[in-house]
Amino acid sequence: MQTKSSLKRRDFIGNISKASLLGVLGVGNTTPLVKNINELSAHPAEGHIFLSQPYLQAPSENGMSIMWITNKLCYSWVEYGEGDQLNQKAHEIKDGLVNAYNRVNAVRLSNLKPNTTYTYRVVSKEILEFQPYKLVYGESITSDTRTFKTVEPKAKEVSWLIMNDIHDRPQSIPHLMKLNGNDPYDYVFFNGDMFDYQTDEQQIINHMLAPCLESFASSKPFLFVRGNHETRGKYSRELADYFTSPSGKYYYSYQWGPVYNIVLDTGEDKPDDALCMQVL
Question: Is the pLDDT of residue 24 over 80?
């Protein structure tokens, strides 16, 4: 037998559940809490394409992170091997689940040999339907084949190029790279204020990733630290999704040959309490 109080409680819980569902779906006058995940696909009418070819991140003597962006939601992986081989495969796993149904990809190649050249390419297979017991794939796309070299831990010297304060002038990156001529270098370090402020994904692609890939980033890695201008704008909270570091954070340390580097997060030039005011 149901009491009057239990019925009221059930009605209350039911009304709360309905309100939550309407909020998620954006029905009535409620504010949507989440977007339809298909809205995250960039330019889907263009077919299945890479918005960014793979670029190298977080180098070490036994590992390298490879990142790239597709315009459709995919399951993606890296094919790689020593020398000119492509006999190994790697995908990213988090909390026991293979990363999938995403566009911005980061796959860490581990257990590599120091001071060794590897060949690699990436593959992204579109996911048309992703249900609990039904997975439907679409077209697969494959990147260009490139090479990279792991860090030599016993190197007697190391050389890198440093750029900062580019401020949304993407043509400056290949121009400055050309000024280096044929002088050898191991990697590039971006020392902050590459942008005026963060607007959207297309800005990151057009103003940084594309000119880096044009110049070096598919065969030599770059490291990145944000400046105060990378904390400005509506997309600043998503910026970290497009880069990685040895610690996975904006502050980190690493050693390359005889040089030990400590990188500080230079993301703000105001007192700590000013950050609260920006959010409000």
Answer: no
